[in-house]
Amino acid sequence: MAAAHGGDTVGAELFRHDDLPDGLVIADERARVVVFNTAAARISGVDAGSALGSYLADALPLEMLDGRAWWACAAPYDALRTVTGHPERNLLLGGSEVLVTSRYVRAERRGPVARVVVALRDTRHRAREELSRAELVSTVAHELRSPLTSVKGFTATLLAKWDRFNDDQKRLMLETVNADADRVTRLITELLDIARIDSGRLTVRRQVVDIGRVAVRHVGGLVASGRSLDQFTVRVANDLPEMWVDADKLDQIMANLLENAVHHGGGHVTIDVRHTGPDDGMDEPGVSVTVTDEGEGIPEELQDRVFTRFWRSGRRGGTGLGLYIVRGLVEGHGGRVEVGRASEGGALFRFLLPAGTPDFLD
Asked: Exposed/middle/buried for 136, CB within 10 Å: 0-12, 13-18, 19+?
């Protein structure tokens, strides 16, 4: 590992810098490189030992896409003192494209530049992000096409041939349109949830919620939609702590897990609601909810992937986003979610939530 000038403290800092997945280059007030981490050496192809102590423009000869020297254009040490850096952009380094972000650090507001901090990323990172976005758009477009085609078909038929249908036929068509509209709404809600989770903008609006009662209510909804009451068992421990959680997000979590158990699991579905504590790895009191089924279960080698985007089992349809959203919503509460194998052989999903506090005390 390369070391910078300045003693043991700087050496300790470099050790942490080398743990970073992105390239990091820092130049001092004289434009001399004092940090050039392992990732920067890998991305740039420049030896860290030779880069340290050299001028920034020599160690990192960045060019704009039109061939102009980047540092001559950016002029960080001569720029207006209100300039704080540059957002991520594509630049050339040794003929290859890299993603570069720069930050100018000043000891005093509008004072001279004391440090120039440069972050480097391989363009493969952006390619992976763009591929993920493209897959998301493709998946959602495919899922939207079916209900929208149905809505368009039934409404066009009703408008053109209203008098030819009796009341029962009209009601059936309108019920189908209503169900498909609900499906579109759910897909749009999933997209909004993913955007908030990925950007760190998920907002949790806490209120007192009886989680046992929520579980019973969701089972009641499934029974009302035609499922047998005998298919479900709900067990709720006594004296659960007062839970401050987001009621809407808890409903999403519960609905997703129960849908998985009913539609993609099979057999009897059991919901256990109980206390959590230090034995569960939780730092404060809370509640865990475990949903198990008697289906085929999830092979152990696939369990690490179930909470990733677009994961589907062999028989699953849908967007493959539900469990990804479940994890984001649970972690947004400061909890965690787990997957395993039930004693009956089916899938086991368990989420743990801390008791929380009212918003005005957070």
From this structure: middle
Count of domains forming the chain: 3
Is 93 a member of any domain?
yes
Each residue of 242-272: b (16+ CB within 10 Å) or e?
ebbbbeebbebbbbbbbebbbebbbbebbbb
Give 247's DSSP letter.
Answer: H
Residue 121 burial (CB count, 10 A): 17
Q: Do 231 and 348 reside in the same domain of the chain?
A: yes
- Interatomic CA distance for residues 261 and 130, integer angstroms: 32
First to last CA, the chain: 42
Cβ pair 107, 123 in contact under 8 A: no
pLDDT-derived band at 17 (thresholds 50, 70, 90) equals: confident
Q: Name the CA radius of gyration of the chain, rounded.
A: 28
Q: 75: domain range?
A: 8-123
The answer to whether residue 319 is domain-embedded is: yes
**Nearest residue to 233 (alpha-carbon basis) of 274, 271, 266:** 271
d(CA 56, CA 76): 11
Which of 199, 228, 251 finishes a domain? 199
Q: Check whether residue 185 and residue 301 sit in a common domain.
A: no
pLDDT tens digits, 80-128: 887 888 888 888 888 788 889 999 999 887 789 999 999 998 876 666 6
